[in-house]
Hints:
The chain is mainly alpha-helical. It contains 14 helices and no strands. It has a single domain (5-409), classed as Up-down Bundle (Amino acid/polyamine transporter I).
Amino acid sequence: MRLSFKHFGPGLIFAGAAIGVSHLVQSTRAGxxxxxxxxxxxxxxxxxxxxxxxxxxxxxxxxxxxLLDGYLKMGKGLLWIYFLLTFTTMFTIQTAVTIVxxxxxxxxxxxFISTKGWTLIILLICFGILIRGRYSIxxxxxKIIVIILTVSTxxxxxxxxxxxxxxxxxxxxxxxxxxxxxxxIAFMGWMPAPLDISIWHSLWALEKxxxxxxxxxKSSLFDFNVGYTATIFIGFCFMLLGTLVxxxxxxxxxxxxxxxxxxxxxxxxxxxxxxxxxxxxxxxxTTMFSTTLTTLDASPRxxxxxxxxxxxxxxxxxxxxxxxxxxxGTLAIFFLxxxxxxxxITIATILSFLTAPFYAIVNYLLISGKxxxxxxxxxxxxxxxxxxxxxxxxxxxxxxxxxLKHLFTV
Length: 410
């Protein structure tokens, strides 16, 4: 199978959506607090979630329909659950990623515009990009963004390595106290992303196939593997940066994304020199802008598809309606409920954690069942990996519930 750059798209968009707060904030904090001691957690959670993310493009290209179509075949109740869960969390998640992006923009381009002002500007820019080109421009733009993100992050790592004389320990660690356990749960829960992004990926794969009929199951899986590998690599890079620049520095980092992002850039400038400001700034901004852009596309795309399936009718302007609705909901939460943002994000995080086994089980049953052609059902190895992953996610959710109170102390 000959692959060209045109065969890449949904896998890189997936990477752009996944590489966000979990990488810039959580991975860097992991390095700052534990050094490289949590590499085991980074690799373990990515391996356990891998099958269920991969089933998105696999099912879509094998059947010509999205995961949501498959959910409908398994029972309309599944679609209603997805609709309600997404409606409950999409405004808070969009607000969270947008204000972090706005905070970085304010730091990079000047605080003559407030964070609220940057929030509005960024949402309008993303809206303009998506409404003008929809999937096509998202596909093209994300290839550029992911390349810039990877190059700038890797450059920052190389510079940090060349400017440090400290020995980097690879000794792995287990959290010992309540705050450390709380952080580990948050770190693994959102790494690389919530499992419902598999549905977004399936919708992007469907759009890609409409534009490029040679985008097959095999090319989609290769595309996904490249994107997924990128998320792991970038996660490790930010953990290494946190280790090299912040580990044992004595600095106390804020749990608020916007504040932490500015602390991050300031720490690099102080430790590596003022010239590092631009490089880490580009890495941080592209990380969060890519997430803001992809989530603004994906949530409306998923909601309009769900609406159409539930009511069995087409919605000509549904994408525009849901995008405008999401933007206004995001701004309303930010301007009216800013003081409650921590609580709202905590609720969204809890739902993302606790629904992971649900999406894992449903995706596995769908790809293994009669609705998927036999030749594209999982191999014995993938069955085994899926069972292990489901057990891990269920155990992880139970552990999360038993230690939930500790998250509020992180």
